[in-house]
Each structure stands twice: as C-alpha cells, then as structure tokens.
Specification:
Layout (H helix, E strand, L loop, with lengths): L2 H5 L7 E6 L5 E6 L6 E6 L3 H8 L1 H11 L2 E5 L2 H10 L14 H14 L4 H12 L3 H5 L20 H16 L6 E5 L5 H9 L3 E6 L2 H14 L5 E5 L2 H7 L4 E7 L10 H11 E14 L8 H7 L8 H9 L4 E8 L2 H15 L1 H7 L2 H19 L3 E9 L10 H12 L1
Parallel strand pairs: 1-3, 5-6, 5-8, 6-7, 8-9
Antiparallel strand pairs: 1-2, 3-4, 9-11, 10-11
Helix pairs in contact: 2-3, 3-17, 4-17, 8-18, 11-12, 15-17, 16-17
C-alpha cells in the first residue's frame, strides 16, 4: 500500500476511493454505500503523492490545480466530501492532521500572516475582492451577497435565503427612523441599500475594494438613494479616528474574518468608539466550534491572505476588554454549507465563462476552495456567529420578541 493510501485510504469506511498510479497499479478503499460518493483519482506523476503527504493542506489543492492529479470518477466536491464525512469534527477526527512541530509552525506562519496594517489590509482585500465584478456576477445572487445566507426553510432559492439573511440581521439592529447606520465591509452595497429601503435612515458603507466601491456607488445612484446611502474607500481604523460616536447602529457582515487575531482588540476598540452610547452593533462572522486555530496554507496563499476564522472564545475575550456587552449570540450551524453548495453549483455551471475570464487552473482553484469550505461547514469545525453588542445594558428591550416581530415585518414588506 502507498503511503498516501495508509494515511487517507484507511480512513474511508463508507463510500469508495480509488488511486490510479502512473505505473498502472490501482488501490481501492472503502465500501460502496448508498448516499455516499464513489471517487477515483489518477496520479499523473509520482511527485504528486509526495507533495500531498508532505503538506496535505497545500499539496492536494496544488496538485489538483496543476493537473498532476485529476478526478476521474465523481468530482472534486465528491472527493472532499467523502474524506470529510468519514472524519467528522464531532467525532474528534482531523483531516490532514500533522505532527505537533508542523502544527506549531503552521500556527506561527498563520499569525505572522495576520499582522494586517492598513496598507496590507488593502492589498489583502484587493487580492480577493478586486478580481472583477463580472466574475462575481456570474454566480452570486442578484444582490451580490458574498456571505452566509440564512435558510430557515427547506427548498429556498439562494436569492430567497440571502433576503432572509438581510431581514434577520436588520431585525437584530432594532432600527428606528432617523438613525445613522455604518456598514463595515459593505461589499457591493446590497445590505446598505436593503436597510435604507426599510425606513428613513442614513447608511454609510465602507470598503477597501475599489471594485466594490464603484459598483456600490453606481447602485445607490440608480436606486435614487445616493443622498441617504453613501460609500467610502476607508479603513475602519481611520474612520474611528475621524468620526467617534457618530453611528446609532453598526453592522459588519463577513468582514471580521479579515481582521486578523492580532488586531481583534483594536477592532473592538474602534467599534465601541464608532457607536453612540446607546448604539447597537451586529457582527456576522465565520467562526470555529472549538478553540483557536490557524489558517490553512491553501487559504493563506491563494484565497484570503491575512484572514483568520476566529473561535467564539477569542472573539468575546477581545470584545470584553473594551467593555462591549454581547447582548445576543446566535450560532448558524449549517447555513453556510447550504450557501456554498449553491455557489459551487453556479460556478460549475459557468465553467466556460470562468475559464475564459482567467484560465483552467483558476477555475480548479476556485471550485476546490468552495468545495473545501462547504465540507468545513457540513462536517468540519466551521460555523457562523451573529453577535449583537451594546455599550449600554438598557439600549434594547429585555426580551427578543422585537427581533421576531421586525423580521416578520421586513419579510412581509
């Protein structure tokens, strides 16, 4: 048996995995099981095995991206789900587990990558979000929401789930007419425009992506709300220094993952500084079920440089140091998995256009990223947290009924 077979193949109990080696030999693992995928990999050179065994978190995606490993039965989604489902996080299993020294090195590299000054933060954002607006239009929903949707019912479309997400978050903000709202990491402006459609409020969105800024401003102009919905290319740290206690409400969706653990305390200090004394903030972020961890090498190198998925514990510790009160916490367990499934299917359906925009290697990188992320939410240790913060304990009603009432009202509207 090959070394890779001993490491990975031995873990496959349900579903099947086959390795076709360059010398013509074949290894097979697992048992055919209803509802589980059957996958076959072809290795086009022996070096690919060494790359994967040495560093599975980077070696496997690079071998797939370069074409030295191809999927001949099933697809990359099936492969990643097969491995992950046979080693679920709840059972204490790890995929690509490494020796303690290697894990320590990974942790140090991950932390070094997260030292995100203002200049570096802009570079990191540009790496991912400035690919092109046309690329993201191919597979996001019509409102271009690039974060976890909310799926309260089965059978919802991606568009319906993203609308439900916006209503769910808006309800937690306890909005009132006349308020001023800040959207940190506003993306292409969809949430800011949605909030402004609910009532007479002013919304200011900030981003570090030039591509997102241009489209967000264009959308506000077309909607005829540019007098109430504004966007700016500015870092949250600079804004906090410029406009202390200026906002009644603050929302941040899918941005905290880019802050980096060394900057958590600074982030929450700025958040508190931006909020009025009776203000409310809602942070929607990817998180970990367990304790603190490290960003894997593939994600650091190719997808989100400078990014880090925080554990709830380290997030709250950082916020507590600024005396922010976490007034409500919700854990969204499978919602991002469902969202990523929808994105993956849409990217695959647009393969020819993606390849024409970039190339085959980029396409394989992107679907590996989406499939791997989905597996992390469906069988790994990833989830989403929505954390509501207040500066003053009397800022909100004593029960959560106001959230449910507002959410129903917004969805009805």
């Amino acid at each position: 048996m090959s070394l890779l077979g001993r490491i990975i193949g031995s873990r496959i109990e349900r579903g099947t995995l086959a390795f076709f080696w360059p010398d013509g030999s074949v290894e097979r693992f697992g048992i055919r099981t209803a509802g589980w995928p059957d996958v076959a990999l072809r290795f086009h050179d022996k070096k690919a095995e060494r790359r994967i065994v040495t560093n599975p978190n980077l070696g496997m995606p690079e071998a797939y991206m370069d074409g030295s490993v191809t999927v001949e039965e099933g697809d990359i989604w099936d492969l990643i789900m097969l491995v992950r489902r046979n080693a679920p996080w709840e059972a204490g299993a790890e995929v690509g587990a490494r020796k303690p020294l290697a894990r320590a090195g990974e942790w140090l590299l991950s932390r070094a990558d997260q030292v995100n000054g203002i200049g570096r933060s802009r570079q990191n954002v540009a790496h991912h979000y400035d690919l092109s607006n046309d690329f993201y239009r191919l597979w996001l929903d019509e409102d271009m929401q690039y974060s976890c949707a909310y799926w309260p019912e089965e059978g919802m479309t991606l568009e319906e789930a993203q609308t439900a997400k916006k209503a769910h978050i808006a309800a937690k903000l306890a909005l009132e007419p006349g308020q001023r709202v800040l959207d940190i990491g506003c993306g292409w402006g969809g949430t800011a425009l949605y909030l402004a459609s609910l009532m007479d409020i002013r919304v200011h969105g900030i981003t570090l992506s030039t591509e997102q800024l241009a489209l967000a401003q264009e959308r506000a102009e077309k909607a005829g709300v540019a007098d109430r919905v504004t966007f700016e290319l500015v870092d949250y740290r600079d804004l906090a220094a410029r406009e202390p206690e200026s906002f009644d409400r603050v929302v941040s969706i899918g941005m905290f993952e880019h802050v980096g653990q060394p900057n958590f305390e600074t982030y929450f200090a700025c958040l508190r500084k931006l909020m009025k004394a009776d203000g409310v903030a809602l942070i929607h972020t990817i998180g970990r079920f367990g304790g603190p961890g490290a960003t894997d090498a593939f994600t650091r190198k190719y997808i989100f440089p400078g990014g880090y998925i925080p554990a709830l514990s380290e997030t709250l510790v950082a916020s507590e140091k600024t005396k922010l009160i976490h007034s409500d916490i919700e854990t969204l367990r499978l919602h991002y998995g469902y969202t990523l499934r929808a994105w993956y299917e849409r990217v695959v359906a647009q393969k020819d256009k993606v390849v024409a925009m970039y190339d085959e290697r980029f396409y394989r990188m992107w679907i590996f990223y989406l499939a791997g992320a989905a597996a992390a939410f469906e069988g790994g240790g990833m989830c989403n947290y929505q954390i509501q913060f207040v500066r003053e304990r009397r800022a909100l009603p004593l029960s959560r009924d106001y959230m449910l009432e507002a959410e129903r009202r917004y969805l009805g509207k």
